[in-house]
Radical SAM domain protein (Fulvivirga imtechensis AK7), 374 residues
Amino acid sequence: MNYKLSDQYLLLFTDCLLTKGVVNATICDTTRGTIDIIPAAYYELLEELKVYPLSHVYDKYNEGTHEHITDFIRFLLKKEYAILLNDKKFFPEIKREWRSPEKINNAIIDINSLRLDFRSIIEQLDDLNCQVIQLRIYSNLYSLDELSMIINLMRDTSIKGVEILIKYAPEYQEKDYILFFESHILISSLHIHSAPIDKTVGIDFGYKGKSKTALASIKTKIYFIKEQIVDSTKCGEIKKSYFCLNSVSDIMHNSCYNSCLNKKIAIDVNGEIKNCPSMTKSFGNINKDTLQEVYSQSTFKELWNVTKDQIDGCKVCEFRLVCSDCRAFLENPQNKHSKPLKCGYDPYTGKWHEWTSDHLIKRRAMQYYQLKQQ
C-alpha cells in the first residue's frame, strides 16, 4: 500500500495509550500488558496522523523523512497498536477520567509488637467499603492459626482480597504455608521474608484436571524471601518491574489521581492512622480514633489529588502513567511535589541508574529519612 497517496487516518486503539517524555515517548498496550519506547519526535507525528489523512501528513514533511514515516506506520500496524480508518468518527478518544464508588479502596496494616483489635478494624473497613487489605507483619507476633482467624473475619464483608507479608517462622514447614494459603480464597498473595533461602513454591489448590488453561487461571506462588524486612522503609522504590498497566482503568487512575495514596488508609506499627505507614504525618490512633473519623478529615485526602503532572521529574517522564508514585520518600522532603527519592530514572537522558548513587540531594534526603545505603 502506498501510504503517501492514502486519504485514510491512522489511529491508535483506545487500549493503547501514548505518553510523551523529554527524549522518549511510550505506547502502553493495556490489553497485552506491554510498553514500547519510541523517540519523542514520533509523538508529534502520531498526533498529526490522528487529525489529518496520511497523504496530508506526508506532504508536511520533506522527502528525506518519508521512509522513516512509512517504517513507523508499518511498525504500529504490525504490533496492532493502530488501525487505518476512512472515517475516524467511529473511534472517539477515550475520556481521561476514573471513578470508583468506595470511600476506601485499599488498606495497609503494619504489625510488629502491637496486637490489634482486628474484629473492630475489619468492621470499620467494611463500613468504608474497602476492597483490598495488605497485611505486613515484621515479627512472629501472630501464628498461622491466628492469621487464619483474622482472615475469616473478612468473610461476608466488602473485602475481596488480602495480600500478606509475614516473617518466616522455623516451627512451620513449607506444607504449613501451602495449607494456610490454600485454606483462604481471599489470599491473593503470600510473601514470607527472613526465610533461609530465596524460593518460590507453586500453588495449584489441588487441581487434578487436564485443562492447561484452567490450571493457568488458578495457579499461583508463595514467595520465600531471604531478605529481612523489619520496617516500612523498603517501600517506595521505583522500578520498571513495578510498572502497572493491567487495564485502561489503571492508566486513568494514574492520570487523574495519586494512584499510590488515592482511597488508601494505613495503620502503622504503633497504631497511628496515616495515608501510608512510611509517612510521618498521623491523623489519629486506632486505639482511640475510628477510621471513619480519620476519613472525614479533609487534610487526610489532600495528597490523593497530587498527580504525576504536578510532580517534579514525573511530569516530563514518559512512564508517568504506569508508575507507582511514592509521596513518603522525596528528594526534597519539604516539597510535596518533589521527585520520588527512590527513583533512579532520568527522563532528560532516558537512562536508569541506581537511586542510591552518590548524588548530594539524594544523600541529604536519605539522611533526613534515616535510610541506609543499599
Notes: The first strand starts at residue 9 and ends at 12. Residues 94 and 112 are 45 Å apart (CA to CA).
